[in-house]
Amino acid sequence: MGFWDWLKRLLDWLSGPFRPRFRKTKLRLSPVVRSGPTGSEIVVLGQLMEAEKLTAIANAEVAVKVTDPKGAIDQYFAMTDNVGMFSIKVGLFVEGNYTVHVEYMGDGDRYLACEASTMLVCKPVLVPTTLVLTPSATEARVGDTVTITATLSS
Amino acid sequence: MTWIAFKPVKLTIVAPDGFTVEQEATTNNIGEFTVDIGTHKKGNYTIYAHYLGVEEMLQPSEATVIILAVEELTETKLEMTAPETVVPVGTNVVVSAKLTVEFPPV
User: Taking CB atoms and an 8 Å cutoff, what residues of chain B touch A127?
Assistant: First the structure.
């Protein structure tokens, strides 16, 4: 066995049991509701976990990017809690679709990066309406006809 | 307040025996419509109106009214007569009463 073969076998041996094992990760985003009227706020719950065992990844930083219907972007970082959860509050101010994108950059020693997206819809505010029924009488003899006037307004 | 003109409203009319009629009415230029309810049985007539609204603009609304239909009562008459209306103290007076009913001509 030459020197290079010996060196290669040594390197293989070293990289075997001591080689860093990266684990796949998974981000799950769950909006409490998927749409809301203009001026409302939607909470999106997020969870970061290992992809295979689904164990929580605690105290990890995730990058949050919220894009509104006009393309304006709001970016910030959030931290997972001790059960891998975090929450994002999205204020809806422009009618249309909001995109929430979250990215986990991974951990140099253990975890691979992952990302997830979800879409929220901002709808216009509905105007309340009122329907009123006014009968000509609330008590009548059998055989009589009662006229009901209805009024619909907003 | 703004009238909602020329919009359909669903009506459900429930008679005392549970018989249900569904119909649709349309509001006029001042947001009104009228509907005549004929009462044929005694009891409660429930009129339920439902406006579906306009998607992404107007919310739905609804209203209910109850009309009580009662039997036609026949008039009765009670007449009392006394032979004398002024008598000395100690006198017994016999008062007659008459209860009659007048059925309407058929």
Answer: 57-59
